[in-house]
Amino acid sequence: MTVLGTALDTAGPGYAERRTAMLAKLAEVEAEHAKALAGGGDKYVQRHKKRGKLLARERIELLLDPDTPFLELSPLAAWGSDYAVGASLVTGIGVVEGIECLITANDPTVRGGASNPWSLKKALRANEIAFANRLPCISLVESGGADLPSQKEIFIPGGGIFRDLTRLSAAGIPTVAVVFGNSTAGGAYIPGMSDHVIMVKEKAKVFLGGPPLVKMATGEESDDESLGGAGMHARTSGLADYFAVDEEDAVRQARRVVARLNHRKAYGDPPPAAPPKYDPDELLGIVSDDLKVPFDPREVIARLVDASDFDEFKPLYGSSLVTGWAALHGYPVGILANAQGVLFSAESQKAAQFIQLANQRDIPLLFLHNTTGYMVGKEYEQGGIIKHGSMMINAVSNSRVPHLSVLMGASYGAGHYGMCGRAYDPRFLFAWPSAKSAVMGPQQLAGVLSIVARQSAAAKGQAYDEEADAALRAMVEQQIEAESLPMFLSGRLYDDGVIDPRDTRTVLGICLSAIHTAPYEGARGGFGVFRM
């Protein structure tokens, strides 16, 4: 076996400093995760419990098979916005009756579970994941519908939720709605468009218009139960397929529905996998707080892949990009990992060839980011960096095997694209707390603006204000730094979550298992024109 060695000095001061910095960043992320877990706050949590209701994550926990993990997705959605962290919605992947499912649950402690613009983005992302990986969808519903003050940002794109439900069903991907409380107005179409519907006695309220709206529109007097209660929908309208006496019974019935789906994975389970030879805890001390300091991505790979066994491809060519073959939890993967940050022509060509090989072999690709982008300068422009970088981006764009991306350090410029950033539709994309992503580094961007302003002043024959320039540079650096951070990017759903580096192997294993629910085949051609 080609087991990777390690040169990581865990007893050295550099390691201790890097580990301390990473733990500090992790503490910041965990504090923000705690805000999502707190929902609407203690007052609304207690009010919800006094009504005899379970919290969103308690419903999920009951639904899942005992002692199985739940990979929560986009937990920091809406971070930095005017809306609560988490966007009043919990989404993730979990195992129900032995079947991996995409689960969504409204958090009714946050404005009654009403959907805001970030809830919508989060739900649409969850639907993308379900569709790409053929995961049955279970919606745990309790929502007052759209957050009306923000309706202008929700109404038009919000129809995508219902479109997705019908497309999932048409593709043979099961959809299940469990209604615990309100599911009103547009929200009524979630059970209306799901394959299987369960409603809770005297709690579920599913109607297009509630009693006040009906009174205003038609003059008719009505009550919640006769208009949209679980009993009415089970006995009269037929919208409810199953009538549950309480929440626990609703979850039990949901599990039975899933057990009877006859939903099968496209691929069997992989062979047993040996763990890495090195302690995953050591991943905390590999990436420096200063992303200008390079690190060897093989140290990361050695702590992720099975038995730390890695067959490197073209190790002597294009050495600032590490490529090679490995297995992760028994699943074969091709890995592309940035070594020294900058991508040159050789690295770009090497990547394009490697991606083609992975497609020939139907092997998923894992991209480990630490890149400042493609190299600039006269020598490199004349050497063809544009066409070679384009070749790599072309290969990534037209590759048909599943892609996974993890942002470990820098992910700047077109290098972010070439390494399969969000715009290139990786099946899953996660970030470490150490990651940063932007069009370029803060100092470089501020410096470019300064140079342009200085040249503009010179062209007009004006004196240049050095004090104003220094203030502008400081302001721009601060802004870009803040907008490059993983919590900012995760809040906008540019990734699927900020994860603890020590959890990376587990997270990727869950994702790979989910990916293998759907059949896939690599591109055998059709990469477009490679400019040679």
3D architecture notes:
By secondary structure, the protein is of the alpha/beta class. Helices cover 41% and strands 18% of the residues. The strands form three sheets. Strands 1, 2, 3, 4, 5, 6, 7 and 8 form an eight-stranded mixed beta sheet that branches. Strands 9, 10, 11, 13, 15, 16 and 17 form a seven-stranded mixed beta sheet that branches. Helix 12 runs parallel beside helix 14 (385-398). The mean pLDDT is 93.
Task: Give a quick set of tags describing it.
seven-stranded mixed sheet, single chain, 532 residues, 19 helices, alpha/beta
Helix segment tally:
19
Q: What composes the largest sheet?
A: 8 strands, mixed
* Count of β-strands: 17
Outline the low-pLDDT stretches. none
- Beta-strand portion reads 15-25%
How far apart the termini lie comes to 36 Å
Shape: globular
Q: What level of helicity do the residues show?
A: 40-55%
Rg, Cα atoms, Å? 25 Å
Class from helix and strand fractions: alpha/beta
Mean pLDDT: 93
